[in-house]
Design goal:
With about 280 residues, this protein is of the alpha/beta class. Helices cover about 20% and strands about 30% of the residues. The strands form 2 sheets. A 7-stranded mixed β-sheet has the order 3-2-1-10-11-12-13. The protein has a 6-stranded mixed β-sheet with strand order 4-5-6-7-9-8, covered by helices on one side. Strand 5, helix 5 and strand 6 form a beta-alpha-beta unit. Helix 5 runs parallel beside helix 6. The radius of gyration is 17 Å and the shape is globular.
Length: about 280
Amino acid sequence: MSGLRLVHLSDPHFGTIKPSAMKALLISMKVLNPDAILISGDITQRARLKQFAEARIFTRTFDHIPVLVLPGNHDIPMYNIFGRFFHPYFGFKNILKGKLNQELDLKTVHVLALNSTRRSRAIQGEIDLSVLERRLKETMTDHQVRIVVFHHPMDCPKRVDEKNLLTNRKEVIEILSRYDVDVVLSGHIHDPFVCLSAHRYPEIKRPMIIGVAGTCLSTRTRLDANNSFNLLDIQFEEKIPKLAITRYDLVDESSFEATTSHRFIKCQDKGWSFN
């Protein structure tokens, strides 16, 4: 039985970093030893060059493994109107050295990360459907597990966050289903959540897994959700993929500890179900 281990971080918001969370997270990464790290946006608090430079130092800590980084709405200048509309991703591209759309090929697992932010939107996001379909058609055909990453989520646990969901999510989920995507990861709402697509999209016949990560490092936590991240363990037993998503919470401001876990199994053409 072989497998892969991925860490899903989100919303670090450099500029609002909690030192205890940073120290604990770096220790956890050494202990967990993931095959790759996926960071789903809001890297900075206000898209300042200093904040991107701090984030670059952080990502360079993991130079021995692939680190995939997406922008979030906070990574576009808010108050610098000229920068927002003419150079919205300057810091992300030139200081952090990030790419708006990128892929990670891990042999049995393929990750496609697409930018869901827009310079014309302060909070909400959307996906370019033509880009999504083209990239899925070109690159995601021969892998046992297909993962897509956005900043803006496809689902949420609380009604207050409905406004934060991807605006064109219904069209997106149909395309993801058409190309047999297995997992959709995101952040944005700082409220960790894991479910099957049937929770919000019962019309999709082949269920996929939806995972939302909380803020891993920022002081901007919610009352009922401390700093956290998600660990994905993907196993292949007799060519049948199994996946576990474990949430790690910052406990006593000293260490990240596993708190909840969801286990899934892929049933070929029937999609994913809880295991």
